[in-house]
Structures are given as C-alpha cells and as structure tokens.
Write a structure and sequence with these properties.
With 323 residues, the chain is of the alpha+beta class. Helices cover 55% and strands 8% of the residues. The chain contains 13 helices and 6 strands. The chain is globular, with a radius of gyration of 21 Å.
Length: 323
Amino acid sequence: MRNLVAILLLTASLAGQGLKPIPADDATRIREFYRVASAIQDSLWPDWGKTPDPLLLVTSDTEYLTHFPQVPKEFQKVGPDLYSRPRQFPPSLLATFPAFGPPSVIVIGEPANTLSKTSTPWLFTVMHEHFHQLQNAQPGYFNQVEQLGLSHGDSSGMWMLNYPFPYDDAKLGQSFAHLRELLLMTLAENDPKKAAELERSYRQARKQFFAQLSSDDHKYLSFQLWQEGIARYTQVKAAEAAEDLAPSPQFAALPDFTSFRVYGAAARAQTLDELKHVDLSRSRREVVYSFGAAEGFLLDRIRPGWKSEYFRYLLTTEPLFQQ
C-alpha cells in the first residue's frame, strides 16, 4: 500500500509539473536490461560490468535518461535515477554515442518503433548496443577512429553509415559471395580433419579478398567487422547465455514477451541464415553484421582465447585470423 501511495503521489506531482512518467512497460524493459546484463556480461567479456551503461529511451514525445553520471540541465527528475526531457531524437533511433559527452549513451526507441518490434529481441539489441559502450570505452578508441582518415571532415559520425564502399563492383561481389560460402561451410563442418582444411582455406581466401581493396576500403571494412560484426556476435552470445536465466515476472507478463530459452536457441541460426542470403550489392553495409558475427563464431573454434586479444588490436580483427 505504501508503494502504491508513493507512486500515486509521484504521478500527481509530475502531472502538476507538466512532466510525463515513463510508461510502465518501458520501465519494465529497462529494468530487465540492467538485470540481465548484470547476470551475464562478465561471463561474455572480461570486466564488461565495469563499463558505464547509460541509456536514453526515446518515446513519441519524451526521452528518458538513466545511469548517466552528470545529467544535463535540460532533463528533469521523474523517478529514482530517471530523468526526462521533450523528445529530440527520432523515435526509431538505435545508436550508441557520447550524446552528452562521455560516456557513450545507448539511444534507442521503443520496440514497436525499431527493427526489434517486440520486447525480447529489443532487450538483446540493447545488449548489442551495450557492447558498443565497451568498445567506445577503450583507451584511444575515438582517436584511433579519427586516425583512420575516413571521415573526411564529417564530425557527425554518419560517415560510418555512408562511406562509399564499392558495394556495386561485380568482381568484388563475386569474391565476397565465395568468401561467405566458405565461411558457412567451415562453420558447418564437424569432421575435425575437414574442418582444419577448410579453416586454412578460409584464412587464405580472406587474405586474398582484402588484398583486392584499396587502402581506405580495407580499413573501412575491417573497422565495420570489428565493431558491428562482433557486436552482433555478442548479441547472439548474450541471448544464448540468457537461455537458462528466468525472466522477471514483470518482463514475462509483457504481452509481446518471448521466452529467453526460445529466443536464445534460435539466435545463432537466424544470424547464419541471414548470412546465407546477403548480397554485397543489395545488402550493402548490412553484410557486416551477420558476416562479422559468423567470423566471431569461427574465432571461438580456431582461436579460443581471442577475446583477450580483441581490444589489443583496435578497429580490426585481421591479426586474429593470422596463423
């Protein structure tokens, strides 16, 4: 009863100030993200739990900020460690960047307004973005991204999406298709001897594929595979790690809830199926997600300790595929 009275008083107070309390379903999803992340993150990446994890939820008319160390002045408190302001970002946005200065913030819309559509996929998409926070938190990350020399004066970061990679080059497209098929074959092979042969072939084919690229194109694709591909890999691994984790009663009660066990069991197959159907000229930058994730699955097999080296080689996974 005391909690109910407190909630009613808080709601009345916010209404009097013209502030909007966070919708109950959104509050449940955010709480579940932090609960699940706390339970699994350090089993996936060493010390991931030490990474700052602020989140900005974008609804149709309001933005809600939590876990940010120094809340910007334009935000007003609407709950414990929860602040709001009128909406400024698009409701469909999905990105991680230092929106208010460091640390980087996950900026994400509600499930229905993003590609996730429902609550459980949304939760593990937030885990993907949380991994970007770990990448961004590495010493020298932003300086090294700038030193790639690919932004050409674009300080907004949009160059990462719009870089003029030669997606329409027919010869390159054929070479990528061959590499993709070889990667899928290698992952599917269970015979140790045949798998070892395919792994050697894949390393060589990968080297030949990258040799076709200009210096800038090489740097761009390597960076995207390191950043987005391994973030998708981590998203899948997080879903698998959560299979045996019981959801909170509130999250399980959401009308669009999908069982963690069901979602986690299908996550890897869905990414590999996506990879089977990508085409460089049609899918363009989207190829890096499933392709980079599949390379992460392969690294688990051919270089079991690769995560201890991943951040040693900022912005590229190439050294991890060397003998």
